[in-house]
Design a protein that fits this description.
The complex is a heterodimer of chains A (1047) and B (428). Chain A is elongated, with a radius of gyration of 39 Å. In chain A, helix 2 packs antiparallel against helix 3 and helix 8 packs antiparallel against helix 9. Chain A is 42% helix and 18% strand. Chain A has 5 domains: 171 residues, Beta-Lactamase (2-Layer Sandwich); 174 residues, 2-Layer Sandwich (Dna Ligase, domain 1), CATH 3.30.1490.20; 188 residues, 2-Layer Sandwich (D-amino Acid Aminotransferase, Chain A, domain 1); 189 residues; 102 residues, Beta Polymerase, domain 2, CATH 3.30.460. Helix content of chain B is 43%, strand content 18%. Chain B has 14 helices and 12 strands. Chain B has a 7-stranded mixed sheet with strand order 9-8-7-6-10-11-12, with helices on both faces. Chain B has a 5-stranded mixed sheet with strand order 1-2-4-3-5. In chain B, helix 3 links the parallel strand 3 and strand 4. Chain B starts with 7 loop residues before the first helix and ends with a helix. The chains are: A alpha+beta (1047), B alpha/beta (428). Chains A and B meet through helix 24 and helix 30 of A and helix 4 of B.
Chain lengths: 1047, 428
């Protein structure tokens, strides 16, 4: 490295310092070694010199002293030399010569550094003294033994200790290192004597302001600066003090230790350097580890500093993470990690959230494995990491910079452009250095399919959940090396393209992360499993949560955790697939199963599995039952997964069972009951939660033999389960209900309707038939009300079978559009009925993400605002005809009538075990939306010739502010006269709404309604406004027209 | 001011009172029969998995055992009420009596939700229940069976506990056991077949050639499938079956004018009787809303799925071609609807008679267990045919003779038999 490039940062300089120190230290070692003859000593010193110079490999040295020449191994005289004379008692007794074997750039003194000049002079000086002493030694040697007993302490002290020699050297060559040593000595001395030191230090940094020498006049004044001389004085004092109190051998040891520690200085500084490139830090780490000493020699604080700095460099700045990780991730781990990192050599990208979580979990578990027998069989897949800036590199390399601006486009536009962008990405190429890296991966992971997971920086920095927002792709990894490399690149490009996809961008916009420069790390892992036929898959996979947010029984506590497990790839457990079910089990309460009846166990068992098709390279969903039947003999441990259904019973297969001929059901019974799987998972969840300090979720897979951990992240980042505080200061009249029993974390917002089955009225129904009618009404409302914009509240057990008095006998299909199911347990006589916790369709609720909440209104800390229910008008009949008779039983309430245009929010906090449903005032957006629906309600479509009404723009996308207008597209089929009337009508409405808006916000918006008429012909021609309706990428929201007759 | 809500026991008593009037029973007879003979209410302490102890409430209600040991299920239900169990136990008495098997009626249960219990806790609960009632049940006193949320698994725990207490092998203490351990063959077919045995006889009596009839069956579960199987074997043509579609959360009816191919349909049906709607469409079935099952032009309707499937709201949709309704399910025809049907000269074979095949087979299981000798499936089904056909004729003849509807005739015979037994014993 040249001076210009390297010296700016001081690190190279520092490396030189260390080399010099090594040399000086070696020198004192030699000089102090009484066993060495003078000649041997000089020969050794000669060998010390080249490594201390800037280019050790081309440096040689010769010491000529007292008529003899001593040469280093590679000695060759050249024209690039540095010379220093050796004097003893002012007469020249020899010379040191240093030569470079090759030409090097000009430095301070020819190709040599000024520090090298100091060093060579210092060596010469020492050798001079040494030569003198050696002569003296010879004379004294004899007398020494007899003298020894009579020597006074003073005389002994006069003889210089090796540490004093070092100090002497340092004063001349490296005052900075000396300062560090001084500092360390001060700390050390505090143990022996602090009064004196305090006094001494008081001179430098006056703690007691009265004794300060200078005119220091207030806390806002900078502390007075000390001049260099006084520092030198203190230095002397400190070492004098040390000499007085600490035995010389101990000081020697201390120095020895400190100087060794000092070798980590370059690494320490490199690590802390902002934006150090991948190649630099890798080199630095490797250099450090190539030395004979490893991490143990580092001072604790240095070790932690380096670890912390490296964690920040590669993983994250998030303090919670750093705090934990620094205890588990060693420098050696970094060396190994960097061996598997691919990225631009000069880049300074990170590895992203997913990788960070995974790597940390791996280290925590590995540490525990050493002393926990139970965990010994856990393994981790081979992994490779691509740094987050590789995507930038890729984009720039291919001139795709416009991709970065995509996020600011209108969402519809993004949706439209995405497929094209993806193809452009897939057809682009990677820079050579990255290609070579990827080739390494392909070679390393040969023979197994691989998964390419996105590891986003955003996910990490903000704790936001991006699960499922960015792509994770499987690659079958079959064929020739070129083919495999090609498909890997293809997959990476696709994952990159997904960064600019409409869903993540929409998500970021909603959360205000849009302007964050998104970089995407990538985690590449081998897929665990085995080849069965044409398929490759693990025996089972899934995800485990340390907190259970879906409790199926009041006996299950949140901290009992939950596992979602499926046969084959874990994809079906990680995502909700609908129409198929993972097996749910709580690792701490394994015996409280979700489904206890055989019928339920069968109904809610997984029927399909995901596997990598090795021929096509695609992930396929295949019939799990057929697959296990066909391959039970060659698929090891099949019996862990299946049970045999016979005569209404489920049993674990025995040796004599023949799965091929039996009715098999996937239950995982044997895995749960006969293996230590649940115990291991429980241990892992407890361990990770305890060490990381937050609930976690962990992805896992197993081939039946070994359990592999694939991913780990804070649970709050998974599936919209981030905690949100319960708002305070909500007026009682705006509270619908609150409770603090059996609450799971969740937030539900923008609810427009509440359907309430009045418990008393329901209980009074005279016949089963009438109770079934109520179920029919609920079904009807479920179809008619806007999806996911209403909640259902009712007595007892929803979905009750047999005894309908216990609750409305609905099926899952009758309620599947609600967002929340509330069961109300009102005291009946002397008992409070037990609630169902949604047992009848629990897994359907989980898979559809329908939340559940029990209410116990008779308990003191539960509040149910029945006044609100009583006041509100019942809209049942405006949704369903013929049920007027049941208006006293079923009440349909519009939230906007409770609070002008507002919505209902339900904040559920499982950690606090509290939930609150409250009325929320309309924000600008929902107020506009509400107004738009009012327009739809009031617009006389038939009269004006309006076919349909659509909403676009900021009110549709949810970005409307106080000054935004409402963009409407009207599909118009009327005549000129109708057109005129229609526009007049809109004008009038617009003025009204503008006035209301001004009253509300104080902002004047002229003509808040921005209406665009589109005719059939426009639609045919696809004019610009018409494309909002016709294009599949544009998602205009259709506004229902209440006064329209023909639909 | 609260209105009296729906009370199943009150309903059962009302029904009894009506028949008792028709039978002109005297007061003591009524008093005896409109209430359970014995009720046992007890507590069952269970050591839970977490070391805590929970007390569960269990009971057994023996409505009447004048004709033989009580017979009836054990329910696990979180909000079980005495009145529900009372009503059900009374219903069991009539059911056994109308089938003319020498058993009385009982019902029992534990207030619990098995969803909140581990297997071990459920086992302790079963054993605890038996410990409390072991002296008052048994092969010659009262014979429990599986019911709501209980299964063969629970029955075996109970049997085992009973045998441990009494120190002997008494497989006849409980029915609903797996075939390997004292269960009876033919149980799967029993109910569905029995529905058709009766249909066969009824059509004979009505002078209708079964091979020229068409039927619509609601449901495609166990009862419906075996009913369809035997009906087709006898030469009938099933044109509609219906099923619950779990995925869509709604019921569909499948129609084929030239008759369903049962075997082919079974192949595309899952364990719960859900027919694969796409495959069915490929096979040429017309898919309709589940409610439409009864609207086709057929001679026979067999509701074999749900309660309250024929009500006053849809009874008018039934074609005039329909001559007989055989109730394979429990309570599929509401009283209002039955009135309309009877007015329209449609024969309704009531549930407690039509689906008695199940309880008769349980009786056979008990008989086999008691003698520790087990029959072949053919033997079981043959005996079932005899028993059911006999029972049917007794009811049919009375209905013809007294011009009664079949359900009334059935109840009258059942209640009369029980009353008679009480009298013969000198109870009243």
């Amino acid at each position: 490295m040249t001076k210009n490039a390297g010296y700016n940062n001081g690190i190279d300089a520092l490396k030189e310092r260390v080399k010099e120190l090594n040399c000086l230290y070696g020198l004192t070692d030699i000089i102090k070694d009484p066993t060495l003859s003078f000649e041997k000593a000089i020969q050794k010193i000669t060998a010390l010199i080249p490594p201390a110079w800037q280019y050790p490999e081309i440096t040689c040295a010769r010491i000529s002293i007292l008529g003899k020449d001593f040469e280093s191994a590679n000695f060759n005289e050249t024209k690039w030399s540095q010379i220093s004379n050796i004097f003893h008692n002012d007469s020249k007794i020899g010379v040191i010569e240093v030569f470079y074997l090759k030409q090097k750039p000009e430095m301070d003194e020819g190709p040599f550094l000024i520090d090298e000049r100091k060093l060579i002079d210092a060596i010469a000086n020492q050798i001079g003294k040494f030569a003198g002493e050696a002569q003296l030694k010879k004379e004294l040697n004899l007398a020494e033994k007899t003298l020894k007993s009579t020597k006074t302490g003073k005389e002994l002290n006069q003889q210089k200790h090796d540490w004093e020699v070092i100090i002497g050297l340092l004063i001349r060559t490296d005052p900075r290192t000396l300062l560090r040593l001084t500092r360390k000595m001060i700390y050390h001395l505090f143990r022996y004597e602090n009064e004196e030191i305090t006094k001494l230090l008081g001179n430098i940094c006056p703690v007691d302001r009265d004794v300060a020498e200078s005119q220091w006049c207030g806390i806002n004044m900078p502390n007075p600066r000390q001049n260099l001389e006084s520092l030198k004085f203190i230095q002397e004092q400190i070492f004098k003090m040390a000499k007085k109190r600490i035995p010389p051998e101990e000081i020697s040891d201390l120095f020895h230790h400190w100087l060794r520690q000092d070798k980590a200085r370059p690494l320490l500084l490199s690590a802390q350097k902002k934006g150090i490139s991948l190649v630099e830090i890798t080199d630095e780490l490797n250099r450090f580890f190539n030395k004979e000493d490893v991490e143990e020699i580092l001072a604790m604080e240095d070790r932690t500093s380096i670890r912390t700095a490296l964690i920040r460099r590669f993983f994250t700045d998030r303090l919670e993470f750093v705090n934990v990780a620094k205890n588990f991730i060693t420098l050696e781990d970094f060396v190994k990690l960097l061996d598997h990192v691919i990225g631009p050599a000069q880049g300074c990208g990170k590895l992203g959230g997913k990788t960070s979580g995974f790597f940390l979990a791996e280290k925590i578990i590995q540490e525990e494995m050493e002393h926990d027998e139970l965990l010994k069989d856990i393994s981790f897949p081979k992994s490779w990491y691509i740094t987050s800036d590789t995507i930038l590199n890729f984009v720039h390399y291919n001139d795709l910079d416009e991709a970065f601006h995509v996020k600011y486009l209108n969402p519809d536009q993004i949706r439209k452009d995405q497929p094209f962008l993806e193809q452009v990405f897939k057809n682009a190429s990677f820079p050579h250095e990255i290609m070579e890296g990827l080739r390494k991966i392909i070679r390393d992971l040969e023979g197994k399919p691989i998964i390419i997971r996105s590891s986003s920086l955003l996910e990490d920095s903000f704790g936001a959940s991006f699960s499922g927002k960015y792509k994770s792709l499987f690659v079958s990894n079959t064929g020739s090396e070129e083919e495999r490399l090609y498909s890997l690149i293809d997959a990476i490009a696709e994952v990159y393209a997904s960064t600019f996809g409409p869903d993540p961008i929409e998500y970021r916009r909603e959360r205000g992360f849009l302007d964050f420069s998104e970089e995407m790390g990538i985690l590449i892992q081998e897929v665990v499993g085995q080849k069965i036929g044409n398929y490759f898959m693990p025996l089972f996979g899934g995800v485990a949560f340390s907190r259970n947010e879906f409790r199926w029984s009041p006996r299950i506590r949140r901290k009992d955790g939950m596992i979602r497990i499926v046969p084959g790839l874990g994809t079906r457990a990680v995502d909700r697939v609908g129409k198929d079910y993972p097996i749910l089990v709580s690792p701490k309460r394994p015996k409280l199963r979700v489904n206890t009846l055989v019928r339920e166990q069968i109904q809610y068992s997984p029927k399909y599995l995901d596997a990598v098709n090795l021929k096509s390279g695609a992930i396929e969903t295949i019939d799990a039952i057929e697959f296990f039947k066909e391959h039970s003999e060659i698929f090891p441990h099949t019996n862990d997964v299946i049970s045999i259904h016979n005569d209404g019973r489920l049993s674990i297969p025995s040796v004599l069972s023949d799965p091929k001929e039996s009715d098999i059901i996937i239950t995982f019974s044997k895995l749960f009951e006969k293996t230590d799987f649940l115990e291991v998972m429980k241990r892992i969840l407890i361990l990770l939660e305890e060490k990381i300090g937050t609930p976690v979720d962990v992805e896992f897979a197993s081939d039946g033999e070994k359990l592999q951990i694939l991913q780990c992240r804070p649970q709050s980042q998974s599936i919209d389960r981030k905690r949100k505080p319960i708002p305070k200061n909500i007026k009682v009249k705006h509270k619908l209900f609150s409770t603090n029993k059996h609450v799971t974390t969740s937030q539900i917002e923008n609810i427009e309707y509440v359907v309430y089955v009045q418990p008393e009225a329901y209980a009074d129904l005279g016949s089963i038939e009438e109770m079934q009618k109520i179920a029919l009404i609920v079904n009807g409302l479920n179809q008619k009300l806007p999806k996911r914009r209403f909640i259902l509240m009712g007595p007892g057990r929803w979905g009750s079978r047999g005894d309908y008095k216990l609750g409305v006998p609905v099926n899952y299909g009758d309620i599947n559009n609600t967002t929340l199911l509330v069961e109300i347990a009102k005291r009946k006589g002397d008992y409070i009925p037990e609630l169902s916790f949604g047992t009848h369709f629990f897994q359907d609720l989980v898979e559809a993400d329908i939340r559940y909440l029990p209410l116990y209104p008779d308990e003191s800390d539960c509040f149910l605002n029945e006044t609100l229910f009583e006041q509100a008008p019942n809209h049942l009949s405006s949704f369903l005809n013929n049920f007027k008779k049941y208006e006293n039983v079923v009440k349909v309430m519009r939230v906007s009538e409770w609070i002008d245009g507002g919505t209902l929010s339900i904040i559920m906090d499982g950690d606090e075990n509290k939930a609150l449903a409250y009325l929320k005032k309309a924000d600008h957006w929902s107020w506009r939306l509400h107004k738009t629906y009012e327009i739809g309600k009031n617009l006389d479509a038939d009269r004006f010739g309006v076919k349909a009404l659509y909403l676009i723009g900021s009110t549709k996308t949810g970005m409307a502010g106080p000054a935004s207008d409402i963009d409407l597209i009207v599909h118009f089929q009327g005549n000129e006269e109708q057109r005129e009337h229609l526009l007049d009508w809109f004008e009038e409405e617009g003025v009204k709404i503008s006035e209301q808006n001004e009253e509300k916000t104080g902002i004047e918006v002229e003509n808040i309604l921005d209406v665009h008429l589109v005719t059939d012909e426009d639609l045919k021609k696809e004019t610009s406004w018409a494309t909002h309706i016709t294009s599949q990428y544009m998602t205009a929201r259709t506004i229902p027209l209440d006064k329209k007759t023909d639909n | 001011m609260t209105k009296e809500g729906y009370n199943p026991f009150k309903m059962a008593q009302k029904q009894f009172d009506r028949i008792a009037d028709m039978l002109e029973l005297d007061v003591p007879e009524r008093e005896l029969l409109r209430n359970p003979l014995r009720e046992y209410h007890f507590l069952i302490p269970v050591k839970m998995d977490d070391g805590s102890t929970r007390i569960f409430k269990g009971f057994r209600i023996q409505h009447n055992d004048a004709r033989g040991p009580c017979k009836g299920g054990i329910r696990f239900h979180p909000q079980e009420t005495e009145d529900t169990v009372r009503a059900l136990s009374m219903w069991m008495t009539w059911k056994c009596a109308v089938a003319d098997i020498p058993l009385g009626g009982g019902k029992g249960g534990i207030i619990c939700d098995p969803h909140d219990l581990s297997e071990r806790e459920q086992e302790l609960l079963c054993r605890g229940w038996v410990r409390q009632i072991a002296r008052d049940i048994g092969p010659v006193r009262d014979v429990p069976a599986p019911d709501v949320m209980t299964s063969g698994k629970h029955m075996l725990w109970m049997m085992d506990e009973f045998q441990a207490i009494h120190g002997g092998q008494y497989p006849g203490v409980i029915t609903g056991k797996p075939v390997e351990l004292g269960g009876s063959l033919g149980r799967t077919e029993a109910t569905g077949y029995a529905v058709i045995y009766q249909l066969r006889e009824a059509l004979k009596e009505m002078d209708i050639d079964i091979t020229k009839t068409k039927a619509a069956i609601e449901g495609f579960g166990n009862v419906a499938q075996y009913a369809a199987e035997l009906y087709i074997e006898y030469g009938g043509m099933v044109v509609v079956v219906s099923c619950w579609d779990q995925k869509d959360g709604k019921a569909y009816a499948y129609y084929k004018e030239e008759g369903i191919d049962l075997e082919a349909l079974r192949k595309i049906t899952d364990r719960f009787g859900t027919i694969d709607k796409n495959k069915a469409a490929k096979m040429g079935y017309e898919r309709m809303d589940g409610k439409e099952w009864l609207t086709k032009k057929v001679d026979v309707l067999i509701p074999a799925a749900l309660e309250n499937s024929i009500t006053k709201d849809n009874v008018d949709k039934i074609q005039s071609s329909v001559k007989i309704v055989v109730c394979g399910a429990n309570g599929p025809v509401t009283p209002d609807a039955e009135n309309t049907l009877v007015e329209n000269k449609v024969i309704v074979i009531p549930d407690f008679l039509a689906n008695a095949g199940g309880v008769v087979c349980s009786y056979f299981e008990q008989v086999q267990s008691n003698q520790n000798y087990y029959w072949t499936k053919e033997e079981v089904l043959g005996k079932l045919d005899n028993k059911i056909t006999d029972a049917f004729y007794k009811v049919w003849e009375l209905a013809q003779k007294k011009k009664l509807r079949v359900s009334d005739a059935g109840y009258m015979i059942a209640i009369q038999r029980v009353a008679e037994a009480c009298k013969m014993r000198g109870w009243v």
